[in-house]
Every structure is written in C-alpha cells, then in structure tokens.
## 1
Amino acid sequence: MIGDSTMADKPTEDNPERGWGQMFPLFFDSTIVIENHAKNGRSTRTFISENRWQTVLDKLKPGDYVIIQFGHNDQSKEKVDRYTSPEDYRQNLEKFVNETRSKKANPILCTPIMRRRFNEKGEFYDTHGVYPDIVREVAKEMQVPLIDMHRKSEKLIRDFGPDSSKKLFLWIEPGVYKSLPEGKQDNTHFSEFGALKMAELAVEGIKELKLELVKHLKK
C-alpha cells in the first residue's frame, strides 16, 4: 500500500488517530501479507523523490498488488514542499502503474478520500479539485482497477450528516488523551472507527471489482 496520512499506520498508545490502511489487514486471512508504506504528508512527488517508491518497487514480486492512494497533499498549493501540479500528478500515477506492471504485479488506483466539509447551511462540499478525476481518467485509460474512495466516502459522510460524521474523524474532547490535552477538531484524519469504516469501503471496492483478493477475505 502506498499513500498519505489517511492510509498510513499510526502509533496506537495514547493516540486516537488511525489510517485506513492500518485497519485493512483485519479483513484478510493469514495467507495475505499487507505492507503499508503510506507516510504522513507525502504526495506522489515526494513519495518518489524520497525513494519511498523505489523501496516498494524493489520488493515487488509477480502477483503482488499495489494499492495507490494520493491526492490530499498533491493538491495543497499552499504547501510547496509537497504540492504536485495536476500534470505531474497524472504522470506520477502513470509511473506507479507502469513500473508495478513491469514487475508483473497488479496496480489498484484509489481516488482520495473526502474531507469532512459542511458549510453553514449543512451542505457538504469537496476540496480536491481536479485530482480525483485525474485518478479516474488514468484508471480508465490504462485499464487499472479503480476503487472510488472519493465517491464512496462522500456517501458515507453525507449519510452520517454534519454532526454524526465527526465520529469518523478526529474530533476529540479536551482531557481524553494525554497527548491531546486541549482536544482536537480534524476533518481530514480518522478516528479508529472512521478508519475502520474507510477500510470497509475499500474492501467493498475489491468485491465489486471481483479481484483475486476476494478469495482471501475473511468469511
């Protein structure tokens, strides 16, 4: 698995945050080994420039799967250390796909997960711009299985609504965790419950795609 903080493993001691990739192994039997290489704050550009992708590529064996989910940091124009232009984002996704296939492994593209954003009228809105559509286009053009986490998570957040959707994210009351004495209100990163729900959406996508991985899901 390669991606950003929404996917990445997090410390579990005195820390309410989890990445959905951290919860993903719970759904699979013992015949599957899941390596989560996702890292906080990474875009497609920095994941490549820091040689994190090369590390993954060197390990790939025929038949392996690479689940790819970036976008949060790529689209952050105000953070120049991680921002990736739409054109470069597309090229980087194509690079991941082509190089995965060069190892006879199987790429799976995921659109970025929605942030929890409601306006004053309680209407949900998106913050990702063109980036989710670029993932969809690359998946279609290169015939890559696509899990549309963007649309799936939008439905989930809308179904929970403006108040209940806080449970999916890091909305922490003051004094609950020593590490967060003043609490936290974070609409991007997930609680354990939220990460589990997002992982469920990814598993749902795998079932819809009828991938070989379905055989290894826990009954």
## 2
Amino acid sequence: MGIRLLPITYQGVHVKFRASRHLHLYASRVVRYRYVNESRYNAGTIYTTYLPGLAGRTSSGYMSAGLNYERRIPRADELDTKDSVWAWDYYQYARLYLAQTVDSAKLGRATGIVGLQVMDAKKQSGYLGRVDAQVYGAEVGAAYRPFKLVLADDYLPAHPNAFNYGGLATPYNTITDSGPMFSQPITDSTEDFGSGSAYSVHLDYLGIPRLFTQIRFVDLHMRTTPVYSNFREVSLLVSYKLKAVKGLNITNIANYATEYPNRNLPGFFQNRIMLVYTF
C-alpha cells in the first residue's frame, strides 16, 4: 500500500458488499476529484494539471470493481492467503487490471511471506495516445517478532511506441502515490518513471506497544525514453497510535531521494509529521 502525504478527495459512489466472512466485493464510480492544492472539485485529472498537452481537458472520471479474499487455508492451519482482483476503467486514458496474492506460512517461530502481482494497462487511442503496460511483481520476506523484513521487485517491459515507453497510466495516482505496486517510493511515483525495474526492501519493528517503525530503501532503474534514469530513496516512518482516542495516530515520515541523470530531485530531503484519524 502506498503512503499519501496529502489526501486527494473524490465525488462519486462507492459500494462495499460482504459476500462471506472471507470475501468482500467493491464497486466505485467517480465523476470528479479535487487535487491537494485545489479548492473545488473538477472533471480533470492529475495529468491535465501537470502534462502541458492535456491542460484544460476534461474526463468522464473512472469506474472500478474488485474483490478481496482473506482466509486461513482449510487443512493448512499455518497458511494464510490474501488475494485481490481489480479492474479500473479510466475512460479517456486506459483500462487497468490487477491480480495479486500475498501468502504467509508459519516456519517454526518465524513466518515466511511470498507475494505475486500482475498488472496490465491498455488503450489504443486516448488522451495519452497508445497505452501498453504490464507489471510483473514479486516479494519475499520473513517475520520474526518484533521484526519483519520484505524484499520486493516490480518489472515493466519496454514498449517504445507506447505512453512513457511502456509505463502505467494512472491519472489519479501519478506523482502522489504508486498505488498497489510492491516497490514504491514516498517522494515520487514508480509509474512516472516508465518501464524498467523497481526494487525495494523494508524492515519493520513492532517491539513497542502502539508504535510502528519502518526503514525503507527503494531503487528504480527505469525509463520513459531509450535512456534509463536511476532513482534511489531512503525513508524512515514512525507511527504512534494514541491510546486515548481510537483511530488517532501521529505519523512522522523522513526521507532522502537522489536521481541521476538529474531530472528534478537532486539530493532532495523532506520530513513530514501528520496527525491521522482513521474512521
């Protein structure tokens, strides 16, 4: 899951249906959105804000549908699975599909973790021209209380005649978040770097009650043209759940990012502290 530093809000309808104890179904229809620095909802996207060729264009929004399945496998008490299947139609931009599974199994006092994900985005003609992108992701890790270590990789094959050289088209996630991709930075978005390889490793510590600590390293070797760029980021995330108010926590994110050849982040450092309420 990505970490949004500031929220983007939407106007639309979202439906969640509990089909069984383990299966949940979702459907959404969004017609307008509001970016972090805008005062009103509008029919644009983040692409119409930042891509010069799309300035002023309106969008019909998007529709999405998906399911999440979580349970302990019958007759395998030590094996848990979390599976997801999703589809998004970004109307004037692309159709995006996702299938993902993250499984864990007890290995003595430790827990082994294995995850796989596949994504596909396509459109022959739209605001971005031809979109043709695939993501093949995998993660492997282990948890041994109070630590958890996970290594992840996402690979996007190149398509020279497609948008961003085979990069994903995500008009409402770009710049601010990398969506469900396993390997994603906080400062930027993996999909904005086009096609190539994205690697990450994160170490979590849960040894103090109500306190979550994570150290994360991300390395992107990707391209939107025939020339690769390299992006690296180191992050420290600390989040504390307040005991007095359920759902309220204080989160601090500090990260340092470098990119070469230089695009727009030469030795960029930031620190954000947030008061977050989950309801």
## 3
Amino acid sequence: MKILHTESSTGWGGQENRTLNECLGLAARSHQVMIAAPPGARLLERAAQAGLATFAIPMTGSVNLVAILRLAKLMRRERPDIVSTHSGRDTSLAGLAARLLRPRPRIVRTRHLILPITSRTTYDRLPDHVAAVSEAVKQELMGSGIPGHYITTVATGVDFSRFERSAAAPVLRQELGLPEDAVLVGTVAILRKGKGHDEVLAAAAQVLREAPAQPEIHFAFAGDGPQFENLKRRIAEKGLEGRVHLLGLRRDVPQVLASLDLFVLATRREALGTSFIEAQAMGLPVIGCRTGGVPETMLEGETGLLVPVQDAPAL
C-alpha cells in the first residue's frame, strides 16, 4: 500500500517517535511511506535522514485553505491508499483535503494523548477510523462520546533489536566521571510540565538525604524541553548539581538506558509510556505512576512498580 502520514507538530516526543518508527516499520514491510509536516519539524528531519519521502507543508490553523489545497495536490499526485493523521490540526487539514478527492484515500487518525478531546469532528466525522495507542486512551475517547466500534487499540511498538542490552555500550559513567560502582537512576522524557521531573527531583533529594554514603547514588535526566532551565535552577537551589545530571537531548537512548540501574518516570498523565517498554527491553526495573496507559506497559510487582501520581515520598 501507499501511505501518507501527516503530523502538524514540529517538536519531538513520544508521539513523533512512534510515528517515525511506525513509518519505518511499514517501509520495512514493503509499503510506500511518505510524511508531510511543517517546515523545520523534527519528524521531517529524522524521516529524511532515515531515507523516507518527506514533504514540507505549512499547517497553521485548522481551516487553512492554502494548506488544504497543497495537501490535496500532493494526494492527487501521489495517490495514497491511506492518509494516517496524528494531531488535531493535521487531521482537519489532511482530512478535508482527502475528502476533496474522488476516489479518495481512507483516513485513519491516531490518538496519542489521554486528554479531553476538543473536537469530535476530527474523530468521528473526518476520519474513517481511529487508532488509540492504549486501552486507556480508547476508554477516554469512548467516554467523550466516540463509538467504540470506531476505535481500535494499536499499542506503540518498540524495535527490540535496537533495545538489546548486550549490543548497547553504557556511556554515562565515563561521560559524567562517576565511580564504576555508582548507582545510576535515570529517566528519558521531554522536559515539560506534567512529565513528573519535579517529583523525581524531590524524591532524589529525599533518597540522597537518607541513603548511605556508599555506593554513590546519581540521577540523570535525558531530554530537552521548556522546563530545562527551570530544572537546572531547582537542582542548584537544592545543592544537587553533583548528583543530578541534565543530559539534554540524546539520540543514543539505548546507550543511555544501558548505563542505568533503574528507570523512573513520574509522568502525571500518560497515554501509554513507550519509554517504560524500552527500559524493560533493556532489562531495567521501572517505576511509574498509576495513570493512563502506564499500568499496561509493565507487570506490576515483577518488572516494575507503580506509585500514586504526584507523590514524591511514595516515589
């Protein structure tokens, strides 16, 4: 099949990562895959680096006639069998564009978030079907009035060949100048409100107060985002600069995970939590919050532990 993916987001997080991996997986199975996104979108950059066909189309506004016509022209030329949309704005634009065509492609919208929906039109009017990234997301959509028969749960996949501990060399102890016997607790997530970095920081401060001096315990946050400077300031205020390390955006995630002894992500609301799956694929125990689709990613008490949301002492 020929599949056109659209994404109006320009940033990089779990949603964009899933979209790229989905495209690569489809391409590996001999489907023709294309991606349309705004100029400068990180998804476009990474997709092009991976050898996928990409198209830069501005996607401002949900009823942008120029964008709709450009998308319709692209679809008319490329003749995709399926248009796979990923955010509200591109669902509106690409959905309207697709419905201008005769014959038209089938439209599938993926819901990556577990938040109240703002427009039912982009779920039960424009798309032919909706894919939910977890059962929790499906239940949220049904609670918003989207019929259950209209939704299929398609959990986010992970390329386990990439997340193979024996094939990933640990890098952080040498990079950070840590003792070889140091215990390293870490997380991989975009640094934005709601991801629970504040709770992890508060829990880290408590652990460091109460834990014995040896072995040393260190905490590492991999990722960038709008909360980077705020977290840097809070780490300094707590006097934790030597024990809590901000790594910034990393493309060597398997190597980062291979460096850890424990993975922690205290996100307050999460559709699924692919990073939990990746961490467990690397053989790491995980700790997360009992929210959204997170419980679906682990065997509680066996591969991971769950704590209440925004409860640093429990964490």
